[in-house]
């Protein structure tokens, strides 16, 4: 419809009255549709005249209908005159009153011909032609090829934040699932207070369904279901400012970046997709179908044809039960082109990615666990699911956390961009001589995850942006986490710390939204935080604070080291035991020379020690690998064991063990 307006001037006075334009899409009984464009019609029109207008437009479009090659029933136009129209659930017969319709927008009407046959799916009902303004929102490294490549990129193996991967992600791309879940989470987050926030995933051999109780869509211009399938039409992209600042963990799911994730994901998962949606104001459910075969056939006829089938129907009883407030969106994917995942694995991975939205202790005002959104997979509530990497990791941490926030600001003139991060450090101690991280990896392996890493290579950084896990961030650690000299107690204990990073919308994700944009100034500054390199980042300034109190880097570093050593003293059970009678020394200890803890008051000397099932004896010849201990060694060193030193008295726990060699 043209945006140009014309006016009529009435001579009785000098007032101007704006013309009224009506756009009516009429759905016909033979599954086709025509569009009527009327300017300043009479307020009332007899049904016969209205049907004649439809017939005239239908004859113009007949050639297009014939090109599609489908056989259709004949519309009984004579009986249609005496039948009725359906507009948003209201029946219109005899007289068509235009006051029912909204001017300047597309009004969808169903025409019945009295045959008793009615279609629920209509050809070319929705136009998905993208707006050329989409180009204004492109990421600097983004193109459609990039988006498609990201969708088909497999879950990484051997790299990333997590040390484990699940077999299902080798078969089903991670970005494909999360794009659909992101859309649903964004939708339910805008529900009014008191309305149920629910996302329900149902996975079968022949169908995948994602249901959310969000505001839904209809046929209106501002809330059209066509926007779901139109590239670049996402309204969430403009909401990024809502995700800036605030309090950690920054639960504001404004994930939308390019406005094409849902449609691409569906086309990747299956050959046909049916989207059904309803708003609270609409009596009808509107549908949109993406069919691979038909899209290809229409493209061969016309390269500019971006139209797809759609329809209207009454809401199902199950849909009304899942969303009592009356609005929802349901995406159903048929004829899956990928292997269906093992359901427990799918539950665990989705819970890992969206954990703070499923259950959260941090945002509660009462100290109790809250459930911001209800997530279900095949009827099972994810809040009640045990297992998964996040839940298993949480069970093995000990003691109080150490955290602070950083505000990043660009230094360039003329820019006011900023980003916020919260770094939360958690300690995973040695339990009865066994590293907690090893216990975590063993537990995950039992759950069916593919574990390819060990304690020394285990990723110790987990990054979430707006509460959603970015599982492909490839950082094993950040420089700030690793303190202390080689082979010192502090350095060894720092290896038991994991950093959970929460980011606001100021940080830019990769096109797949599973990683951070690697060249972004804020991403680089965060990745290098704590680095002692002489190279300075002149593009970003940082401000460190905790509970509103500004802190210097030196203060934070000192507090962190004290926290690590305190966690070590309080919780580590290194469990190195002597196999012979000990010689106890508790006077005149040179703690620094012996390399023992500064507050250690006594040590035990042993000739034989057993650790992790292996015995070590005095006189045994060993090779000390380069960098395994402090000193000027530039290569491996061969030595003979003299004694073993275990800190503290025998009835005390958590004493470090040292070896004296010559």
Can you describe what's shown?
Residues 1-15 and 134-172 have low confidence and may be disordered. The longest helix has 21 residues, at 47-67. The protein has 662 residues and is an alpha+beta fold. The protein folds into four domains: 7-119, Phosphatidylinositol 3-kinase Catalytic Subunit, Chain A, domain 1 (Ubiquitin-like (UB roll)); 132-243 and 251-385, Heat Shock Protein 90, CATH 3.30.565; 391-571, no CATH class; 577-661, no CATH class. It is elongated. The protein has a nine-stranded mixed β-sheet with strand order 10-16-15-14-17-13-12-18-19. It has a seven-stranded mixed β-sheet with strand order 26-25-27-21-20-28-29.
Which CATH class of the largest domain applies here? Alpha Beta
Number of domains: 4
Please give the largest β-sheet. 9 strands, mixed
C-alpha geometry: elongated
**What is the number of beta strands?**
37
Please tally the helical runs, counting DSSP H or I stretches of 4 or more residues. Answer: 17
Classification by helices and strands? alpha+beta
Radius of gyration in whole Å, from Cα? 33 Å
Runs in which pLDDT lies below 50 for 5 or more consecutive residues are: 1-15, 134-172
Largest sheet, spatial ordering of strands: 10-16-15-14-17-13-12-18-19
Named at the architecture level, the CATH assignment of the largest domain is: 2-Layer Sandwich
* Fourth CATH level, the homologous superfamily of the largest domain: Histidine kinase-like ATPase, C-terminal domain
The CATH topology of the largest domain is what?
Heat Shock Protein 90
Helix % is 10-25%
Distance between the termini: 90 Å
Mean pLDDT: 80
Strand content: 25-35%
